[in-house]
Amino acid sequence: MFDPKKLLDDLLGSQVPGTSGTVRDKAGQAVQMAKDNPLAAGALAAVLLGTGTGRQVTGTAIKLGGLAAIGGLAYKAYQNYKAGNAPAETPAAGEPELLPPPKDTAFHPSQAPQGEDEFTLTLVRAMISAAKADGHVDDEERQKIAGKLQLAGIGTEAEQFLMAELESPLDLDTLVAGAQTDAQKLELYTASRLTIDPDTRAERGYLDLLAGRLGLPDALVNHVEATVSAAKVPVSEKPGTSPNPRW
Hints:
Helices cover about 55% and strands about 0% of the residues. By secondary structure, the chain is an all-alpha fold.
C-alpha cells in the first residue's frame, strides 16, 4: 500500500525527503527533456491533471507538508472567521508564518476519527474531483496523465490509485460523507480550493456546490478563499511558455 500522506505532499508540491527537489520538479524536468517545452505549473495535481492554474502554493505551507498545510490553512480561516475579521487575501505586514493546527483542535490530523490515512485519501480524492471540475479529462487526456505519472516516479500503487480516481464518475455524496467532522468539512473544501483557481464557470460552480453540500457558511467560505489566495503565488513564466498549460 502506498503512503497516502506522501501522495498528498506530492500533489501539493511539497519537498520529498531525501531528494533535492519535489516530485513536481522531477515531472517537469522529464517533460522538458521530452518536449523541450518546460511546463509552468504549480503542484503535481496541476501538472498531471492539467488544471493549469498558473499559481502554486508557496512558503511555509509547502514546508509543513500536505496534511498539516491543509489543516493549518483551514484552521487559520476558521479562526479569522470566528474572530469576525474581514477576509484578507494579502498577508498583513509582520504576519506570522503558517503553523500546523494545534494538537488539541479537531483540525489536527491526529484527531481524525477515521484515522489519518483514511482522511488523507479523502483529501486526495477531493483534489482530483476539483481538478476534473471543468470536464476536460477524457480518454485521451487520461492516457497523457498516465504517461506523466510514470515520469513523476510516484510509484505503481499510487499511479493506479490516481488513475482509478480519474476514471471514476464524480460521487459528491461519498466525497462529502468522507468528512466526518465540521473541521474536516472545512479541510475538504480547503484542499479542493488549493487544487484549482476558479477561473471558469464550471470550476466556480463546482466549488459553490461543494460548499453548499458541506454546509459551510458563505462568510466562512470567503475566509478560506482569502487564506488560500494569500498562500499561493503566480508561477514564474519562462519565455515561450504559458501560465495556463494544458498539454
